[in-house]
Structures are given as C-alpha cells and as structure tokens.
C-alpha cells in the first residue's frame, strides 16, 4: 500500500503497510486505500464478492467514531444480560475515551471465565480491522440462543471487543497517534528507540498503557490484534535474535486452525519483518496467553481494496473460504480461549460472597537503550497482573480459568538479549480470599502450569468469613 524501494527485500513488499517499513524512509503516512471517506459501497469487484452475505449489522460502508459508539451502546441496551460497555482506564492524548464491549452470559458477574480479547486499529488508518471486530459483536448478540456453537461458547468465554484502540489516529485517519507515535512499537518489552516512531520511552503513550492495563487486569487466555493489509497471521518473536517462543507449537496449531477459516498463512513476526515493542510480544511473555496479529486483507491479496473486498468478503470468507472467513477464525479463537488444556484453572470452595484475587509482580526489560553516559543497557519496567472473581455462583465452589503462573523466560533481560530460551520461570500466583469490604482473610501461593489445575485450600477463609 505504501511501497518504497526499501521494501523490495521483503516478499510482501508491496503491501507491507503494517510493518511500518515504509516509515523508515521518512515518508508520512498517506491515507490507506482502505480508509477512504465513508461512502456507499462500491459495486462488487469480484464474482465471489457478489455472493457474500450481508454483514451482521447490515452496514454497507465504513463506520465513523459516532457509529462505533452508537453500535456499542445499542448492543448493551438491547441485551444488558449479555453485553456490557467498558471504558479503558486512560484517555487518549487528545482526551478521547477508548471504549469496548464485553459479551458473555451473565455479563455483569465476576465469574472467572477465560477472556478472548480482540482489538482493532492500533493503526488508525486500518479501518477494516475495526469493522470486522465490531461486526463480530453484532453477530454474537444476534446468534446467542439461536446458533448452538455460539450459545455454548458465550457460556464459556468472555469476549472483550475494543474496535479502536488508537482513537485519535482513527479520527485523523493516520497510522500513528496524535503524538506521532506508532502504538505498536511503544510496548515496553523489548522496546527499542531504533524503531520508527517508538515514543519517547517504553509505555509513553496512554493508548499503549490502556491495552497493557486491560490485559493485566483480566485473564486474557487468547488475544487477537487486528490490522490490515497482508492476509496473514503473525506471532512472536519480533526479532530473529530473540529466537522462538517456548510455546511455538501452540502458536502454530492455533494459527493453523484459524487459517483453515480465513485462508491466511502464518509465520513468526520476525520472519515477516523484524520489529520491536509490539503488543503480542509483551502479552505473551508477561501472561503466557497466546496473542496473534491478524492482518486482514483481500484474498487473493491483489484485489482492489474496497469496503466489499475488505470487510464483508473478509468477514464471511470468499472462494474456498466462503462461509468461514475471519468470522470462523474468531470462533476458533473463542474455542482456543475456552480450552482448559491451553491455559490453567484454579478450583476451590470459597465462602459465598467472598472476593478472590490473584496477582503477580515482576520486572521486564527493553532492548538496550543508549544512556546519558554513552553506554547502552536495557531498562526495566514493572508489571503487575491482577484480577478478581466472586464465588457467588454454584454454592461457593468455583473453577477459575486463568493463565499459567509458570511463565516463559523472556529473551530480553537485564544484561541484553538471549535468544532461543527453552525454560520457564517457576512463578506462583498470590491468591487472596477477602470479605466484600476488602478485609483479607487468607493468602496463599499457587503454582500452576499450562494445561494444569490447582486446588486452592480456602479452609482458613471459610472459617473466618462469617465471624
Ligand atoms: Zn497495522
């Protein structure tokens, strides 16, 4: 989309919009073709497009910010039992709210379900990434109680959709934020000042901290970050020297399963193009939840980029993927999020009404960063993961779907980059059992690996709770 001669070494050169490679040439982002001003849909440009069903919302053109906001409010208004509006903790640098919707059965409960997070528009000019995210919300609400698979999955999984994380960029139709930072180079883990537009420091942008805090305060067992326009899916590492992640087999099988639906190929992000400071790298090494970048684009990729070819065709699938598409990939991601063999569970018997919290604290590091004294060294930043559930249901017996406490040893360390790590940090969750007023009655450490379950013995909490 913004090809330059510098891109020719990449086999995806002509369309490497998302990698930001063209930005290294200093060329300002031209409005992406996908982000043309809202207008009635162009006539279908391919035989397949003519057969694609209408979108779940019935829309035929790109949304404005007001359209996204009214859609989310309407879904929550129609089904308050199923849809809850969420406002992320930080306003954008221009003061705009960043909002999303949570969708699950009994959505108001703090019920300990695993979370599938889908975000759109880290890059504000990649409009189709927000459209498919929002359409999935319409689809889930319309099919709850009608479609057996969707009804079952909404009983098991909490879906959090945030269609526009870079709201200022969307409003301006620019890749970067209003502060001219590429959000997807601003995440602290492995952050490098050598990347194009990485921000003044790791986590310098409120938009980036929003995504960090959203993931840190929930058990996001599966995460999709939507972009345009490459027709592929990417997972860690971001840099070849970091080596493959410990859970590479899990990443590959998950991406394979999604690929049978959307028809996209998958590879490591580093093999596509090397970067640093992207969300999928931080989220995996901090939480061990699987995060995948999905680059929505036409299939085949050379087609004209219209609303039809990028949104309805890619939502429902075309050609050999007709009836599957990214909708099918999202449903696979819900199944991945629900799969207890792919995360961990904490079980126990808690006093009815007790508030259970798990947390862990640890430091992570950037790539080496030049220092005032002329040396270069990694900079650390703290991470705090904490989430809460209430054992109100099922008579106090609970099963809490969580990410493993055992965490992959990260390639970015205090003394530099160490690639091809194979080990894990034998960390534990700290679990507290408290009264609703916050009085902690019991604290225990729980170590749990991927695919495993651990029993929390809350005898002490039960004994003290009603005194
Ligand atoms: Zn992008």
UniProtKB/TrEMBL annotation:
Source domain of life: Bacteria
Region (Disordered): 38-57
Pfam families registered for this protein in UniProt: Peptidase_M14
UniProt keyword Signal, yes or no: yes
One GO CC term on file: extracellular space
Domain Peptidase M14, first and last residues per copy: 61-326
GO biological process: proteolysis
PROSITE patterns found in the cross-reference section: PEPTIDASE_M14
Keyword Zinc applies: yes
Cofactor(s) of this protein: Zn(2+)
Signal peptide range in chain numbering: 1-29
SMART domains named in the record: Zn_pept (SM00631)
Protein family according to the UniProt entry: Belongs to the peptidase M14 family.
Protein name, per record: Zinc carboxypeptidase
Originating species: Thermomonospora echinospora
Taxonomic path: Bacteria, Bacillati, Actinomycetota, Actinomycetes, Streptosporangiales
